[in-house]
Amino acid sequence: MKRSSTTKRVNDILLGRLERPALQWLAAHSPKWMTPDIYTVIGLLGTVITMVGYILSRSHPGFFWLATFGFVVNWYGDSMDGTLARYRHIERPVYGYFIDHTMDAVGQVLFFVGLGLSPYVNFDVACLALVAYLLMDVLVFLRTNAVHEFRISFSMLGPTEARILAILLNTAMFFFGRQVWNVNIGTFCNFAVNPYDIFVGAVGALLLYFFLTTTYQDAVRLIKEGK
């Protein structure tokens, strides 16, 4: 899907005031041989590292730090490819849009599958959260063409905040280990819950909420505009 020259880019995130100056500094100090494509590969490599860390956490929880390192690498590569292209005025809008978001989708699959293969989060819950994340991807792509707005942040939450939440989850799983909470409601209602499943499920539910509400709002807007 092609972004037109009239498409508005929206990335109003909580950490934007810290992130944007940092990215500009990194772009200004990037070696001349670095290219946006190299940064894209670095971003994908970060998600591979994260997936490996999650899988290896089956043998030792210390590998959650490897998964966290992968998120840092992913942030660096994924944030710098477009930043460097804009800084050097070497944008390739169609190619960049296609490659960047294709790699993002692959990275999301690797992350959630890896998380589900760890011994701390149920695979089904991780896959449901992945579905919600991919639905948001679809929504972003459709809105780019339908309403000419390339929005990658919702309620001031974007990919950077999502990585921070994942890092907090990794930290909790490392320090607290496997957790099972027994919930007793009355005499005949007793069940066990995994707090990490609740956390991942809540993130998925939030993404689904953004998807549904934004879809409804845009549908109403398009009907009123007669499009």
| Largest sheet report | 2 strands, parallel
Per the principal axes of the C-alpha atoms, what is the gross shape?
A: globular
**Low-confidence spans:** none
Secondary structural class: mainly alpha
- The CATH architecture is Up-down Bundle
N-to-C series of helices and strands: EHHHHHEHEEH
Using only C-alpha atoms, the radius of gyration works out to 19 Å
Helix content: 55-70%
Name the CATH homologous superfamily: CDP-alcohol phosphotransferase transmembrane (TM) domain
Tally of contiguous helical segments: 7
Strand proportion, as a percent range, falls in: 5-15%
| CATH level 1 class label | Mainly Alpha
Mean of residue pLDDT values: 91
Q: How do the strands and helices of this protein lay out in sequence?
A:
Elements: E1 8-10, H1 16-28, H2 36-56, H3 64-88, H4 93-117, H5 123-146, E2 149-151, H6 159-176, E3 181-184, E4 190-193, H7 195-224
Parallel strand pairs: 1-2
Antiparallel strand pairs: 3-4
Helix pairs in contact: 1-3, 2-3, 2-4, 3-6, 4-5, 5-7
Summarize the structure in words.
With 227 residues, the protein is mainly α. 69% of the residues lie in helices and 6% in strands. It has a single domain (8-224), classed as Four Helix Bundle (Hemerythrin (Met), subunit A). The protein has 7 helices and 4 strands; from the N terminus they run βαααααβαββα. A two-stranded parallel ribbon has the order 1-2. The radius of gyration is 19 Å and the shape is globular.
